[in-house]
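Pinned message: reference record for Thioredoxin-like fold domain-containing protein
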Amino acid sequence: MSFYDQKVTEELGLEFVDVKMQDTETYRKYRKVLLSQYPDKSEMGWPTYIICDNPNADFQILGEVKGGHPKGEFRSRLQAVIAGGNG
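Predicted structure (tokens):
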């Protein structure tokens, strides 16, 4: 699923970062983004895509897309976040 989702994300001009909790280096780098949205990690969908601006500094969360979706629906939900609809 993430291969397709990454392709769609990049087609829309965004950077896709796959953060697996078992990948400790990447997880530590983006942990602050995850915990700002899910302080106790509850209510996350699998997968959860958090769309944010400037994730390596003073980031702002723009929205999210949770759970697996058919190809067209994922693209539509991601476009809604980009347009300001917050997913």
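Pinned by admin. Summary line: The CA atoms of residues 9 and 70 lie 14 Å apart.
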